[in-house]
Write a structure and sequence with these properties.
This protein is α/β, with parallel strands linked by helices. The protein folds into two domains: 213 residues, Quinone Oxidoreductase, Chain A, domain 1 (Alpha-Beta Complex); 133 residues, Rossmann fold (3-Layer(aba) Sandwich). It contains twelve helices and 17 strands. Helix 9 links the parallel strand 14 and strand 15. It starts with a strand and ends with a helix.
């Protein structure tokens, strides 16, 4: 009997701890992946602590997965044993709605199946994520990771990378466009790197002066301290696009004021509590827009990985052992990481004696 070793939260108040389970048998189009690295997303913490009130316990978090193919189903044709692959935030969708037909599975009108905390469409079993030694996924939801990228640094691309790439691509970031990135965390630092590689003029907004040098190192042309009213006023009416990555409740009005006529503020950070409502006149008088964006479809995620391969972009990471995950969560709450924790899953294998 095959056993997958993992870490899970049994309830909202419990720390993550060792948890073993039996993975599903390989279906015709499945790929079994030996997980090498898994990024730690703020969403993992939200789910483990049931802050979004939808967690299905026990929960095995992790949706920034990079590993190598161990086995494939008898009808699977997209990957071979040994391929370097990734799995992001979803492992299935209805495949029949208009969004799925357009390759926008993340907006599946019948709800995509999350890599963890989801329900298998065939059996109803709860899906378990990447804080584990192995995962079994339908080949259509597996991505090819460029071999030239460091696999540990590539893991966060499967969420942080695509979450910022998708709005930057959709709203046309590139030469001649002025793009703002709000926040320099796991998402924001990738937003700066990607927008810079796209050729846009990039301005980072942060509340921390200690991040000025890092912001410029990562590709920002300017760094603005967002709590400094004078610095903010100097940027008024000048942005085509601002991508807001901050996952905490805050006032959006200061950023809306920075948009040009017909500029867009895109929210990708997912706070526990909603932002206060913005001032309507700030929108009306410049035909400005506030929008949201959720990860990306499978085709766009592959496009993002290929883009990062071409430009040699990976996340700035701190590699941790599996048994450090609870401390990592506490540090993440304090923004004490530059800029993404990634779990070395070999440490889990060693701990489990696998």
């Amino acid at each position: 009997m095959k056993i997958t070793h993992a870490y899970a939260a049994q309830d909202a108040a419990s720390p993550l701890a060792p948890f073993d389970y039996q993975p599903r048998a390989l279906r015709h189009h499945d790929v079994e992946i030996e997980i090498l690295y898994c990024g730690v997303c703020h969403s993992d913490l939200h789910q483990a602590r049931n802050e979004w009130k939808n967690t299905l316990f026990p929960v095995v978090p992790g949706h920034e997965i990079v590993g190598r193919v161990l086995a494939v189903g008898d009808h699977a044709s997209k990957y071979r044993v040994g391929d370097l692959v990734g799995v992001g935030c979803m492992v299935d969708s209805c495949r029949t709605c208009p969004s799925c037909d357009e390759g926008l599975e993340q907006y599946c009108e019948n709800g995509f199946t999350g890599t963890y905390n989801g329900e298998d469409r065939e059996t109803g079993a709860i899906t378990y994520g990447g804080y584990a030694t192995n995962v079994v996924v339908h080949e259509d939801f597996v991505l090819k990771v460029p071999e030239n990228l460091d696999p540990a640094g590539a893991a966060p691309l499967l969420c942080a990378g695509i979450t910022t790439y998708s709005p930057l691509s959709h709203w046309g970031a590139g030469p001649g466009k002025k793009v703002g990135i709000v926040g320099l965390g796991g998402l924001g630092h990738m937003g700066v790197k990607i927008a810079h590689a796209m050729g846009a003029e990039v301005v980072l907004f942060t509340t921390s002066e200690s991040k000025i040098a890092d912001g410029k190192r990562l590709g920002a042309d300017q760094v603005v301290i967002s709590k400094d009213a004078e610095q903010m006023a100097a940027q008024a009416n000048s942005f085509d696009l601002i991508v807001n990555t901050v996952a905490a409740q805050h006032d959006l009005n200061p950023f809306i004021t920075l948009l040009k006529r017909e500029g867009t503020l895109v929210l990708v950070g997912a706070p526990e509590h909603d932002h206060p409502s913005p001032q309507v006149f700030n929108l009306i008088f410049k035909r400005r827009a506030i929008a949201g964006s959720l990860i990306g479809g499978i085709q766009e995620t592959q496009e993002m990985l290929d883009f990062c391969g071409k430009h040699n972009l990976v996340s700035d990471i701190e590699l941790i052992n599996m048994n450090q995950i609870n401390d990592a969560y506490e540090r993440m709450l304090k923004s004490d990481v530059k800029y993404r924790f990634v779990i070395d899953i070999d440490s889990l294998r060693q701990e489990a004696g696998a």
